């Protein structure tokens, strides 16, 4: 059972002895405490009550109401109610836009994140693009660059590789200005993937190698893992199947030792290895790999992915 702190007890006393906007403000402060304690159902209920009071007493656009909607969205996200969270966060963003607050840019990014979590990638992309279209180009360069990356990621999910490439390329240019090699490497990995799907093996290889060069120099195991996987894909596109297999094995070894292994990527990687062996005429080896990962595929892939013969990473 929740034991209220002295601070929370005083706020509840204010709720009991006040009305209108003072009461709403006290409820919001309690919701922050409950959110901090990861009691998101309580936090959501408190925000909803505060919202009703604000709409009754002060229905015009204001910064406080935007923060209430943000609190509702934050609680819903933590309750894995992503679509509802996106809608609430969008209400917050609209209010912030109306009053000219630069917080709208960050909130729109979170709208995109919520739609992404809900697997509505078109709405996710639109939120990121709205953030980019409305951003002050001289403000918040890091969040603008991130919106380019996130928009590209949503486009990847929709398999719009040519458009995704443009967004990742722009993000890369911005991170270069900011001198952030780790995020440049991430962009290079995704640019490589886009080129792979666009059947441009040489550019896929070039950008994967750039990412790997950074990872080796910086001793960055995360990007070493992913850039190696992208390099393997590039070699597949260039029909260098033996080199691809060697690289896939290295990437897989790095993935499986993670505390939380990226099982979807591991399975897709193994499918690529099976495909490479098939291209080399080793059908028996290929079939054995596919047999071995069948149970894992049924656990970690959704129905569409299980039946999809194409495999990115």
SSE topology string: HHHHHHHHHHHHHHHHH
Share in β-strands: under 5%
Number of DSSP strand runs:
0
Radius of gyration: 24 Å
Largest sheet, in brief, is: none
> So what's the overall shape?
elongated
Instruction: Give the fraction of residues assigned to helices.
Output: over 70%
Task: Note the main attributes of this structure.
mainly alpha
Short description:
The chain has helices spanning 6-17, 20-36, 40-57, 63-78, 82-98, 103-117, 121-134, 141-157, 161-177, 181-197, 201-218, 221-237, 241-256, 263-279, 283-292, 294-300, 303-307. The protein has 313 residues and is mostly helical.
Walk me through this protein's architecture.
α13 (241-256) runs antiparallel to α14. It is elongated, with a radius of gyration of 24 Å. The chain has 313 residues and is mainly alpha-helical. It has helices spanning 6-17, 20-36, 40-57, 63-78, 82-98, 103-117, 121-134, 141-157, 161-177, 181-197, 201-218, 221-237, 241-256, 263-279, 283-292, 294-300, 303-307. It is built from 17 helices and no strands.
How are the elements arranged and paired?
Layout: H1 6-17, H2 20-36, H3 40-57, H4 63-78, H5 82-98, H6 103-117, H7 121-134, H8 141-157, H9 161-177, H10 181-197, H11 201-218, H12 221-237, H13 241-256, H14 263-279, H15 283-292, H16 294-300, H17 303-307
Helix pairs in contact: 1-2, 2-3, 3-4, 4-5, 5-6, 6-7, 6-8, 7-8, 8-9, 9-10, 10-11, 10-12, 11-12, 12-13, 13-14, 14-15
